[in-house]
Amino acid sequence: MSEYTSKPEEKFESVHTNKVGGSPYKGVVGWIDNRLPIIRMFRHEYLDFQVPKSLSYFWSFGGILTICLLLLILTGISLGMHYKPDAKHAFESVEKIMRDVNFGWLIRYAHMNLASFFFIAVYLHIFRGLYYGSYKEPRQLMWIIGIVIFFLMMATAFLGYTLPWGQMSYWGATVITNLFSAIPLFGESIVTWLWGDYSVGDAALNRFYVLHWLIAFLIVGVVVFHVIALHIVGSNNPSGIEPKDTRDTVTFAPYTTSKDLVGMLVFLLIFVVVMMYAPNYLGHPDNYIPANPMVTPAHIVPEWYFLPFYAILRSIPDKLMGVVAMVSSIAVLGLLPWLDFSKVRSSVFRPIWKQCVFLFVLDFFVLMYIGGAPAEGIYLLIGRIGTAFWFAFFFILAPLVSLVEKPLPMPQSIHEFEDWKKQGKIKVFQFFGK
Amino acid sequence: MSDTKNKDKTTRRDFITTVTATVGAVGVGAAVMPIVSQMNPDSSVKALASIEVDISKVKEGQEITVLWRGKPVFIKRRSKEEIEKAQKVNLKDLKDPEEDKARVKNPEWLVVLGVCTHLGCVPIGGKGNFDGWFCPCHGSHYDTSGRIRLGPAPTNLEVPKYEFVGTDKIKIG
Amino acid sequence: MKNYLKFIFIFSFIFIFSTTSSIQAKESNVSLLKPNWTFNGFFGKFDRAQLQRGYQVYKEVCASCHSMNLVSFRNLAEPGGPEFSEAEVKALAAQYEIQDGPNADGEMFTRKGIPSDRFKSPYPNELASRAANGGAYPPDMSVLVKARPGQSDYIYSVLMGYEEKVPANIKLEDGVYYNKYMSGNKIRMAKPLNSGGVEYADGTKATEEQMAKDVVSFLTWAAEPHLEARKKLGFKSVLYLLILTILVYLVKKKIWSRIESKV
């Protein structure tokens, strides 16, 4: 008996695997959209998408970061067509780009300064998150994905910096890869495995080049997840109050897009000034000396955006614990949604937490300065205090403040928040006082 | 959504928006240009776009091969017989009709690209049925003026841009 | 709006302060000599005659020990640099015997230089250079200006920083000289520039200061041959972006005015 002969009393659930249809478009566009709904998806997610109307310019950094990433990839691909990842030829190939390649100097300076500005933007982007409680429910996962992106950015930046094969490239690579030897039992073999040799050299350079490309494109992928998550939870806003009705929102296009564009252009303007008039200001002169395994520079310093974490690393006397401290100083951000359990999101209404966040920012800059100084004497002491405060911010201040803080009176909605702003009842951004 | 939102959608492109969009587009174009331009030959390649070859030691009947822009160039100091032969050829016999005098500046010197016009192999000098060159890949025969006489090649060996610099140098390119 | 400006201002100040710590030459507390370079500032340019004199100083004084192997003779004719004529560059290059080969016999040979050749190094490699200079390596000068904190000012200061009177707390070994501005205050190079050491082709008086200024300008060009193009393009880009930002801001205000009125 075949199962195809159906008994009259048996009922089978009908199945529709063909989901074609539902497009509001006609003609060729409609034909495509019915079968691959990217056009109506684009419209829904990027044009008609509802966004809080109270977003400030601090919310432009997401868009700014995307532009930075796009430009880094474009300039990176252009550089990649001329760069030679061979220890004998790397430094010279970069100089060839600077001197002979059409607009090579422009592309190279753009790429290296974009890397710095990428970090400026990401730090401001994270600051926005900290200040306005963007890490709180329901945005915890988005926040964690962001931390993953930050780790990938640091890896990409580190690898990219080794490529010109200058003194800092070589010695920075040596110091940082040597950190892995702190891992108990397997540390040394891991380091040799990373190097493909018994010291940083040609083998390491070649693979760093490949990994630089790979991780850069991985960032693109994780950013996609970051944005998808954003479209599920929706944007936070300076009031920290979720939108309730259309009085609280505007469509993404043209309102938020035009505002983001202004933010992007101001950022680009500052970037162009630095790139064109002080292109080497954020770099280190020692990296214009070709790598020499026999001569160590007097002070090995990473790029400025790593300095705070470098300071944390050096404040712990034990090698392994130093590495653990450095990595956890960033990973601990992931715990913030649970360490800070205040129900109020925005620091606008949290007078004590606001001060804590500003102190944390100050600590960040202090550690940045310390990271660039020699690791001795008063610098080391300040570095240790700074490191202690960093972790105290997360493990002591965050839960304590959530417990004892009395938030300021809050409006009921975003549009009421906007009214309060107009009436001068609240000031969104203030260093001291309410 | 509310009615007010629908009314907002009347996209009446006003003057300032159009101006801004145009100015913006110009900027995007200007920013993309270097990305495209960097793929063009860089100045170290362009510096080798021309080479000067010393021909003072080339004897009559002798041929030298030089590398120019990555390709071989045959420089032949032709004997009187070779020149005569090249000039006497009836144009009707040529697949790619060309007078010998149109292919040389000084009949004593023939400068041609050593690249077969069929599929790019390098022909061998002093071989073939026409006392010129013979391409071993698919059997093209070239004469003493580098013109195709027999075989699958469609056109004569290319004459690059060149000029004499004094009496003992040729600048190619 | 005002609060944001306050924030940007304070942020930039703190940022610049924190980043300069790793950039300043910490060892020397002496501030560098800072001449008025023609190439400084937003509209900086090189002086052609100065670059040509600088090349002469490099060629006659420095090139016997310092290589500049990333610069080609043809660069001397390119716009934005000394701008020698094509003929002059051809003649300059032909003064040198450059190694080439192998020839048909498989041997290396030397031939006269052509514009596309790189500058010839005084030594075949770094080890030969060290051997000839008592273990010290006269660094390649192609990007030397960018490789020192203080850049052009630093190189100029070192050239002018030789002093007869050595401070009491500094002990000099054999073949080491005291220099006020050199990081570490000790230098293995004897004073390279002495008044009248070069006879300038354009007749300029070759004082120590003049030669130092000229050669440092030349070295700055060698390190940054596209400096003029960069600053020119910088001006156009900044102007363009300022205009575009204002335009976009006006459009943004126009768009947002639609809802302000409805509140």
Overview of this protein structure:
The complex is a heterotrimer of chains A (434), B (173) and C (263). Chain A is mostly helical. Chain A folds into 2 domains: 51-300, Cytochrome Bc1 Complex, Chain C (Up-down Bundle), CATH 1.20.810; 301-406, Helix Hairpins, CATH 1.10.287. Helices cover 61% and strands 1% of the residues of chain A. In chain A, strands 1-2 form a two-stranded antiparallel sheet. The radius of gyration of chain A is 26 Å and the shape is globular. Chain B is α+β, with helices and mostly antiparallel strands and 173 residues long. Chain B contains 4 helices and 10 strands. In chain B, the strands form 3 sheets. Chain B has a 4-stranded antiparallel β-sheet with strand order 5-6-7-8, with no helix packed on it. In chain B, a hairpin with a 2-residue loop joins β2 and β3. Chain B is elongated and about 80 Å long. The N and C termini of chain B lie far apart (69 Å). Residues 1-10 of chain B have low confidence and may be disordered. With 263 residues, chain C is mainly α. A two-stranded antiparallel ribbon of chain C has the order 1-2. A two-stranded antiparallel sheet of chain C has the order 3-4. In chain C, α2 (48-62) crosses α6 (208-223) and α5 (151-160) runs antiparallel to α6 (208-223). The model of chain C is unreliable at 22-27 (pLDDT under 50). At the A-C interface, α4, α5, α10 and α14 of A face α1 and α7 of C.
Mean pLDDT of chain C: 89
User: What helical percentage do the residues of chain C reach?
Assistant: 40-55%
* Beta-strand proportion of chain C: under 5%
Number of self-contained structural domains of chain A: 2
Q: Structural class of the helix and strand makeup of chain A? A: mainly alpha
Summed up:
The complex is a heterotrimer of chains A (434), B (173) and C (263). By secondary structure, chain A is mainly alpha-helical. Helices cover 61% and strands 1% of the residues of chain A.
SSE blueprint and pairings:
The complex is a heterotrimer of chains A (about 425), B (about 170) and C (about 260).
Chain A: H1 27-35, H2 38-47, E1 50-52, H3 61-80, H4 90-99, H5 104-132, H6 140-162, H7 167-178, H8 187-195, H9 202-233, E2 249-251, H10 252-277, H11 307-315, H12 319-331, H13 336-339, H14 351-371, H15 377-404, H16 414-422
Antiparallel strand pairs in A: 1-2
Chain B: H1 3-8, H2 15-37, H3 43-47, E1 51-54, E2 63-68, E3 71-77, H4 80-88, E4 109-113, E5 124-125, E6 133-135, E7 140-142, E8 148-150, E9 162-165, E10 169-172
Antiparallel strand pairs in B: 1-10, 2-3, 3-4, 5-6, 6-7, 7-8, 9-10
Chain C: H1 2-20, H2 48-62, H3 86-94, E1 97-100, E2 109-112, H4 126-132, H5 151-160, E3 177-178, E4 186-187, H6 208-223, H7 227-260
Helix pairs in contact in C: 2-6, 5-6
